[in-house]
Design brief:
Layout (H helix, E strand, L loop, with lengths): L1 H7 L2 H25 L15 E2 L2 E2 L2 E2 L3 E2 L3 H18 L6 H31 L5 H4 L4 E6 L9 E7 L2 E8 L10 E9 L2 E6 L6
Parallel strand pairs: 7-9
Antiparallel strand pairs: 1-2, 3-4, 5-6, 5-8, 6-7, 8-9
Helix pairs in contact: 2-3, 3-4
């Protein structure tokens, strides 16, 4: 029966179902890994440096990055399920696509703010970042520009927990995936780090 249902689908619907189911599976894996203390996004981050008229479009709301694997998954999750569920009742393909795109964007924004809120809650706990972070090592999560010309992000293990912070460096650019060491806590959310010359990318 499943084979018959699949055979009756149009090529477009087969593609939509395939993308949606793949996004759903990856979303579930990411969620499980996040609650287990890992971060599936750290190895799949797309390090994009996009600019227009000198404005860096890759950073919004204090360093949150739009162009990550997690956000692409979230977009296709919202887009795909919306299109599949509304397809029988919305006869206009154009209207269906517009609604699905809006839902996909809304899901991306909602998840970004959720993770930002969770990160803030973690960092505002009982850890004194000025004392606990210095000397800790971790991984560059988003590329850190050279000589404090911009901010990136790092994931640092502090007191047995992986935490995410904004980061700058006084040295050369630190690429996504590189190992880093914390030199100083500039403020509660921003660290000064140096690269340890052991990077993936």
């Amino acid at each position: 029966m499943l084979a018959t249902w699949w055979a009756d689908l149009s090529p477009v619907m087969k593609l939509l179902w395939g993308v949606t189911l793949a996004a759903t599976l990856v979303f579930i894996i990411q969620t499980v890994m996040t609650f287990l203390g890992a971060d599936a996004d750290s190895n799949f981050d797309v390090d994009v440096d996009t600019s227009m008229d000198g404005t860096d479009l890759s950073n919004i709301e204090g360093g949150s990055n739009l162009y990550t694997f997690r956000n692409f998954v979230n977009f296709f999750l919202g887009f795909g399920w919306t299109a599949i569920l509304l397809q029988p009742s919305v006869k206009s393909t154009g209207l269906l696509v517009v609604i699905a795109v809006l839902v996909g964007i809304a899901l991306v924004v909602a998840v970004m703010y959720l993770f930002k809120w969770l990160s803030t809650m973690q960092q505002s706990g009982n850890i004194n970042v000025y004392k606990a972070a210095v000397g800790c090592q971790g991984t560059c999560y988003l590329r850190i520009p050279a000589e404090r010309s911009g901010e990136g992000k790092v994931q640092i293990t502090i007191q047995g927990a992986v935490r995410e912070y904004n980061a700058v460096t006084d040295g050369d650019e630190i690429k996504t995936g590189a190992s880093v060491k914390v030199i100083e806590a500039i403020d509660a959310n921003t660290l000064l780090v140096e690269g340890l010359n052991s990077y993936i990318i």
